[in-house]
Amino acid sequence: MELTDEEICMSDGDNKGNPYHAVAPPIYQTSLFTKPTFEAFAEDQVHENERHVYSRGTNPTVEVLEQKLASLERGEACKCFGSGMGAISSTWMTILRPGDHVLFLNHTYGPALQLIEHLSSFDISYTVWTKDSGRSMEDCIQRNTALIYMENPGTMKMEIIDIEKAAAIAKEHSITTMMDNTWATPLFQKPLTMGVDIVVHSLTKYIGGHSDVLGGAVIASRSFIKKLFFHGYQLFGSVLSAIEASMVIRGLRTLPLRMRNHESNAGQVISFLQTRSEVKAIHHPSVNDEASALVDQQFYGLSGLLSFELKDGGFENVARFINELSLFRIGTSWGGFESLVTSPIKPANEEGLLRQGFDPGLVRLSVGLEGALQQIQDLEGAFERTRHYV
Ligand SMILES: *Cc1c(COP(=O)(O)O)cnc(C)c1O
Question: For 192-201, how does the pLDDT look when each residue is reduced to its tens digit (9 = 90+)?
Answer without folding.
Answer: 999 999 999 9
